[in-house]
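Tutorial, part two.
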Amino acid sequence: MDKKITVVGAGNVGATAAQRLAEKALGDVVLIDIIEGVPQGKALDLAEAAPIEKHDARLTGTNSYELSANSDIVIITAGIPRKPGMSRDDLLATNKKIMKNVTEQVCRFSPEAILIIVSNPLDAMCHVAYQVSGFPRNRVLGMAGVLDSARFRAFIALELQVSVENIHAFVLGGHGDTMVPCPATPPWPEFRLRNS
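Running the prediction step on this input gives:
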Protein backbone atom coordinates (compact mmCIF):
# COMPACT_ATOMS: atom_id res chain seq x y z
CA MET A 1 0.00 0.00 0.00
CA ASP A 2 1.23 3.51 -0.63
CA LYS A 3 -0.37 5.09 2.48
CA LYS A 4 0.54 4.48 6.10
CA ILE A 5 -2.05 5.04 8.82
CA THR A 6 -1.34 4.78 12.53
CA VAL A 7 -4.06 4.20 15.11
CA VAL A 8 -3.04 5.07 18.67
CA GLY A 9 -5.15 3.15 21.16
CA ALA A 10 -6.08 -0.49 20.55
CA GLY A 11 -9.33 -0.52 22.52
CA ASN A 12 -12.74 -1.01 20.94
CA VAL A 13 -12.68 2.22 18.94
CA GLY A 14 -9.05 1.92 17.83
CA ALA A 15 -9.28 -1.74 16.87
CA THR A 16 -12.50 -1.12 14.94
CA ALA A 17 -10.91 1.82 13.14
CA ALA A 18 -7.93 -0.36 12.21
CA GLN A 19 -10.27 -3.07 10.93
CA ARG A 20 -12.23 -0.65 8.74
CA LEU A 21 -9.07 0.96 7.37
CA ALA A 22 -7.65 -2.43 6.41
CA GLU A 23 -10.89 -3.78 4.95
CA LYS A 24 -11.31 -0.70 2.78
CA ALA A 25 -7.63 -1.03 1.75
CA LEU A 26 -6.98 2.62 2.63
CA GLY A 27 -3.39 1.89 3.64
CA ASP A 28 -1.08 -0.16 5.81
CA VAL A 29 -2.04 0.14 9.48
CA VAL A 30 0.10 0.45 12.59
CA LEU A 31 -1.82 -0.16 15.82
CA ILE A 32 -0.20 1.25 18.99
CA ASP A 33 -1.17 0.69 22.62
CA ILE A 34 0.63 0.85 25.97
CA ILE A 35 -0.60 -2.60 27.05
CA GLU A 36 1.96 -5.22 26.03
CA GLY A 37 0.57 -7.82 23.64
CA VAL A 38 -2.79 -6.13 22.96
CA PRO A 39 -1.96 -4.25 19.74
CA GLN A 40 0.16 -7.17 18.53
CA GLY A 41 -2.70 -9.63 19.07
CA LYS A 42 -5.34 -7.42 17.50
CA ALA A 43 -3.14 -6.67 14.48
CA LEU A 44 -2.52 -10.40 14.04
CA ASP A 45 -6.25 -11.16 14.22
CA LEU A 46 -6.98 -8.50 11.61
CA ALA A 47 -4.15 -9.69 9.36
CA GLU A 48 -5.42 -13.25 9.51
CA ALA A 49 -8.84 -12.04 8.32
CA ALA A 50 -7.29 -10.49 5.18
CA PRO A 51 -7.87 -13.53 2.94
CA ILE A 52 -11.54 -13.57 3.92
CA GLU A 53 -12.01 -9.81 3.58
CA LYS A 54 -9.82 -9.74 0.45
CA HIS A 55 -7.37 -6.96 1.27
CA ASP A 56 -3.60 -6.71 1.26
CA ALA A 57 -3.17 -4.09 3.97
CA ARG A 58 -0.20 -4.82 6.20
CA LEU A 59 -1.12 -4.63 9.90
CA THR A 60 1.46 -4.11 12.62
CA GLY A 61 0.88 -4.01 16.37
CA THR A 62 3.41 -2.32 18.64
CA ASN A 63 3.92 -0.67 22.02
CA SER A 64 6.29 1.99 20.69
CA TYR A 65 6.05 4.78 18.15
CA GLU A 66 9.10 3.91 16.04
CA LEU A 67 7.12 1.65 13.71
CA SER A 68 4.67 4.49 13.07
CA ALA A 69 7.37 6.67 11.52
CA ASN A 70 6.35 8.61 8.42
CA SER A 71 2.64 7.94 8.79
CA ASP A 72 0.40 9.89 6.45
CA ILE A 73 -2.49 9.88 8.92
CA VAL A 74 -2.55 9.28 12.68
CA ILE A 75 -5.85 8.52 14.37
CA ILE A 76 -5.71 9.07 18.13
CA THR A 77 -8.25 7.10 20.17
CA ALA A 78 -6.10 6.86 23.33
CA GLY A 79 -7.45 7.89 26.70
CA ILE A 80 -9.50 6.54 29.54
CA PRO A 81 -13.13 5.78 28.66
CA ARG A 82 -16.10 7.19 30.52
CA LYS A 83 -17.43 5.14 33.38
CA PRO A 84 -21.11 5.13 34.37
CA GLY A 85 -22.13 8.52 35.74
CA MET A 86 -19.13 10.34 34.26
CA SER A 87 -19.47 13.21 31.82
CA ARG A 88 -17.02 13.76 28.98
CA ASP A 89 -15.67 16.72 30.96
CA ASP A 90 -14.75 14.40 33.85
CA LEU A 91 -12.11 12.89 31.56
CA LEU A 92 -10.44 16.21 30.84
CA ALA A 93 -7.45 16.24 33.21
CA THR A 94 -6.41 12.63 32.67
CA ASN A 95 -6.94 12.54 28.93
CA LYS A 96 -5.20 15.90 28.47
CA LYS A 97 -1.97 14.37 29.82
CA ILE A 98 -2.40 11.32 27.60
CA MET A 99 -3.12 13.46 24.51
CA LYS A 100 -0.08 15.65 25.16
CA ASN A 101 2.21 12.63 25.46
CA VAL A 102 0.75 10.85 22.42
CA THR A 103 0.89 13.98 20.26
CA GLU A 104 4.53 14.62 21.17
CA GLN A 105 5.46 11.07 20.14
CA VAL A 106 3.41 11.20 16.95
CA CYS A 107 4.98 14.51 15.90
CA ARG A 108 8.46 13.18 16.62
CA PHE A 109 8.04 10.26 14.22
CA SER A 110 5.49 11.62 11.72
CA PRO A 111 5.95 15.40 11.48
CA GLU A 112 3.96 15.62 8.21
CA ALA A 113 0.96 13.56 9.33
CA ILE A 114 -2.67 14.58 9.47
CA LEU A 115 -4.07 14.02 12.98
CA ILE A 116 -7.61 12.74 13.46
CA ILE A 117 -8.66 12.95 17.09
CA VAL A 118 -11.32 10.63 18.50
CA SER A 119 -10.50 10.82 22.25
CA ASN A 120 -12.93 12.47 24.68
CA PRO A 121 -13.70 15.17 25.53
CA LEU A 122 -13.20 15.56 21.81
CA ASP A 123 -13.22 19.32 21.31
CA ALA A 124 -10.76 19.89 24.16
CA MET A 125 -8.51 17.03 22.99
CA CYS A 126 -8.41 18.49 19.47
CA HIS A 127 -7.25 21.77 20.94
CA VAL A 128 -4.55 20.02 23.00
CA ALA A 129 -3.28 18.15 19.93
CA TYR A 130 -3.34 21.35 17.89
CA GLN A 131 -1.32 23.28 20.49
CA VAL A 132 1.18 20.50 21.20
CA SER A 133 1.74 19.57 17.55
CA GLY A 134 2.12 23.08 16.20
CA PHE A 135 0.54 21.70 13.02
CA PRO A 136 -1.63 23.96 10.87
CA ARG A 137 -5.32 23.73 11.76
CA ASN A 138 -6.16 21.86 8.56
CA ARG A 139 -4.00 18.95 9.78
CA VAL A 140 -5.68 18.47 13.20
CA LEU A 141 -9.25 17.21 12.87
CA GLY A 142 -11.91 15.95 15.25
CA MET A 143 -14.10 13.06 14.15
CA ALA A 144 -17.25 13.83 16.17
CA GLY A 145 -19.39 15.62 13.57
CA VAL A 146 -19.61 12.57 11.35
CA LEU A 147 -20.11 10.26 14.33
CA ASP A 148 -22.82 12.32 15.98
CA SER A 149 -24.64 12.86 12.70
CA ALA A 150 -24.47 9.13 11.92
CA ARG A 151 -25.83 8.28 15.36
CA PHE A 152 -28.67 10.78 14.91
CA ARG A 153 -29.58 9.30 11.52
CA ALA A 154 -29.39 5.75 12.91
CA PHE A 155 -31.74 6.54 15.80
CA ILE A 156 -34.27 8.24 13.51
CA ALA A 157 -34.16 5.25 11.13
CA LEU A 158 -34.70 2.82 14.00
CA GLU A 159 -37.63 4.82 15.34
CA LEU A 160 -39.27 5.19 11.93
CA GLN A 161 -38.31 1.66 10.82
CA VAL A 162 -36.84 2.86 7.53
CA SER A 163 -33.45 2.54 5.88
CA VAL A 164 -30.70 4.86 7.12
CA GLU A 165 -30.16 5.73 3.47
CA ASN A 166 -33.53 7.51 3.52
CA ILE A 167 -32.67 9.66 6.52
CA HIS A 168 -31.00 13.03 6.00
CA ALA A 169 -30.02 14.82 9.20
CA PHE A 170 -26.95 16.23 10.90
CA VAL A 171 -25.74 17.56 14.22
CA LEU A 172 -24.09 20.93 14.83
CA GLY A 173 -21.90 22.08 17.71
CA GLY A 174 -19.54 20.41 20.12
CA HIS A 175 -19.41 16.69 20.81
CA GLY A 176 -21.49 16.54 23.98
CA ASP A 177 -24.65 17.80 25.61
CA THR A 178 -24.61 21.11 23.71
CA MET A 179 -24.89 19.64 20.21
CA VAL A 180 -27.94 20.66 18.19
CA PRO A 181 -29.81 18.13 16.01
CA CYS A 182 -30.91 19.47 12.61
CA PRO A 183 -33.15 17.44 10.32
CA ALA A 184 -32.29 18.07 6.68
CA THR A 185 -34.74 18.28 3.80
CA PRO A 186 -33.84 15.83 1.04
CA PRO A 187 -32.52 17.50 -2.10
CA TRP A 188 -34.95 15.91 -4.53
CA PRO A 189 -38.13 17.92 -5.27
CA GLU A 190 -40.52 14.97 -5.56
CA PHE A 191 -40.00 14.19 -1.86
CA ARG A 192 -40.93 17.72 -0.83
CA LEU A 193 -43.99 17.71 -3.09
CA ARG A 194 -45.33 14.38 -1.86
CA ASN A 195 -44.66 15.08 1.80
CA SER A 196 -45.53 18.78 2.07
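The chain is about 40% helix and 15% strand. In part three we will examine how such features are distributed along the chain.
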